[in-house]
Automatic annotation (TrEMBL):
Pfam families recorded: Beta-Casp (PF10996), Lactamase_B_6 (PF16661), RMMBL (PF07521)
Organism of this sequence: Shewanella polaris
Keyword vocabulary terms for this entry: Hydrolase
Molecular function as annotated in GO: hydrolase activity; RNA endonuclease activity
Gene3D superfamilies: 3.40.50.10890, Ribonuclease Z/Hydroxyacylglutathione hydrolase-like
Ranges where the Metallo-beta-lactamase domain occurs: 15-243
Keyword Hydrolase among UniProt keywords: yes
Keyword Disulfide bond annotated: no
PANTHER family: CLEAVAGE AND POLYADENYLATION SPECIFICITY FACTOR FAMILY MEMBER (PTHR11203), INTEGRATOR COMPLEX SUBUNIT 11 (PTHR11203:SF37)
Top-level division of the source organism's lineage: Bacteria
Signal peptide coordinates: none
Protein name stated in the entry: MBL fold metallo-hydrolase
Length: 490
């Protein structure tokens, strides 16, 4: 039985998740994500897929974040007609996120075409449109956590809670038939134990191969308690001194809802009632509605708190929801007493950039960075100490105070990744994806150093690599464009 796994995205980077399984001629795609980062990175989304989209039998989607789901419309545009298997909340969030992405694609293309028309250049087409998103939504097949389903001949799948965002899943895959059957476990993006709203990541015990994310493979997050103390300190110093505004660039799905929950829990302790809190993101507002409507997926603390406070939903109680552009613009006239949560999380789009134009140059402003910032993004530049940012074509001086609060991350840190892997029996082979090279190298060394986690074999995936799954637990790499004509084992 011919079984291979080829890596086409999130290889030595944290965006564009895309991995191709082939089992006896049946092709199944794990994720199909948008490449994010610099403008040059984004242009790669228009490149043809390195496979025939019309021959993909099915897609298994780990979660709704755009770097995992964002090229699904383009996949359909290129000929994919099969089912997309995912958890119910993920499908609902994709309806929100993909439509927003389509709107941005069409708007940005229209802006570029106006310039190109003046110079007699060929007009561009958006990567996908809302009509393409309609086709995506029609192809979703909802799978409950714990439900084992056949997605292709010789490929069965089971999803379990990954604790990363609502609906996120660890994906178990059984490939082929016994006695040659192999089991692959794809971590998707792993969350963290003890975080608010969602349940903890699910531990899996059996696998022949683990495909594991490595976003924070080189560092430890602050503890949850230390993070709360840090946030309280930021709010206390700013609010009590009555100075400036607080801007929080936040991912619309996951981080925004977590912040709303924290503001509800600690409104009194952090003295937030003295300030106006605004969620300035139509997509985050729609995503919050999905969270509210998927109450059964929340952790027990959230459910208990909600039961004890009827009529006061913790995600709806403390912030104004800013939908219209006009309402958002009005916030620019407020120079103090304002907390704004706005997208995008990496500051490379969305309304946060407009707020930067009016606040970034003011020393009274505080900016809280509370999520991963990919290389090349404005958020990464701020974290790395940039003295100015270019926004909408103009250079803006950075005078605001920049606070990096890593403890709010929805990604597992090194210790949590090691702990998750440690629950597998017999130390299966592991391949790292979804991480930058430095973080991956540190994590793979940590895995191999500890006898409790040392895998039989380990590797860092590279774009285009093709693995022979029949050879597991050995990692035998088949010919790729960057390799010789002979199979190799790393």
């Amino acid at each position: 039985m011919n079984m291979t796994l080829q890596f086409h995205g999130a290889t030595q980077e944290v965006t564009g998740s895309c991995h191709l399984l082939t089992v006896n001629g049946q092709q199944v795609l794990l994720d199909c994500g948008l490449i994010q980062g610099s403008k040059a990175d984004s242009l790669r989304n228009h490149d043809p897929f390195p496979f025939d989209a019309s021959k993909i039998h099915a897609v298994v989607l780990s979660h709704a974040h755009i770097d995992h789901s964002g090229r699904l419309p383009y996949l359909i545009n290129q000929g994919f007609t099969g089912p997309i298997y995912t958890q119910k909340a993920t499908a609902e969030l994709c309806d929100v996120m993909l439509r927003d992405a389509a709107m941005l694609q069409e708007r940005d293309t229209d802006r570029q075409n106006k310039k190109r028309a003046k110079n007699d250049l060929e007009l561009l087409e958006p990567l996908f449109t809302e009509k393409d998103v309609d086709l995506v939504m029609a192809q979703f097949e909802v799978v409950d956590y714990g439900q084992r389903v056949q997605v292709a001949d010789g490929v069965e799948v089971c999803l379990s809670d990954a604790g990363h965002i609502l609906g996120s899943a660890v994906v178990e895959l059984w490939l082929g038939n016994k006695p040659e059957q192999k089991k692959l476990v794809f971590s998707g993006d792993l969350g963290r134990a003890g975080m608010p709203i969602l349940g903890d990541p699910t531990f899996i015990e059996q696998a022949d191969l683990v495909l594991m994310e490595s976003t924070y493979g080189d560092r430890l997050h602050r503890s949850w308690q230390d993070t709360l103390v840090e946030l309280k300190s930021i709010f206390k110093s700013t609010i009590h001194e009555g100075r400036g505004n607080i801007l929080i660039p936040a991912f619309s799905v996951g981080r925004s809802q977590e912040l709303l929950y924290l503001f509800h829990l600690y409104a009194k302790e952090w003295d937030l009632s003295r300030w106006r809190i605004c969620l300035d993101s139509p997509m985050a507002i729609k995503a919050t509605e999905v969270y509210v409507n998927n109450y059964p997926l929340m952790d027990e603390d959230f459910k208990r708190f909600t039961r004890q406070s009827p009529g006061q939903h913790p995600l709806l109680s403390c912030a104004e929801f800013i939908n219209s552009t006009e309402e958002s613009i009005e916030l620019n006239d407020i120079h103090e007493g304002l907390i704004v949560i706005a997208g995008s999380g990496m500051c490379n789009g969305g309304r946060i950039r407009n707020h930067f134009v009016h606040n970034l140059w003011r020393k009274e402003t505080d900016i809280i960075i509370c999520g991963f910032q990919a290389m090349g993004t404005p958020g990464r530049l701020l974290v790395d100490g940039a003295e100015e940012l270019t926004i909408h074509g103009q250079s803006i001086k950075v005078a605001a105070s920049i606070h990096t609060v890593g403890g709010l991350s929805a990604h597992a840190d090194q210790a949590e990744l090691l702990s998750w892997y440690r629950h597998f029996e017999q130390s299966p082979a592991v391949i790292l994806v979804h991480g930058e090279p430095e973080a991956q190298q540190v994590l793979i060394e940590a895995l191999n150093k500890d006898p409790a986690t040392k895998p039989k074999h380990s590797a860092i995936a590279k774009r285009g690599d093709c693995l022979d799954l029949n050879a597991l637990p050995q990692l035998v790499w088949l010919t790729t464009a960057s390799e010789s004509n002979e199979p190799s084992e790393r």
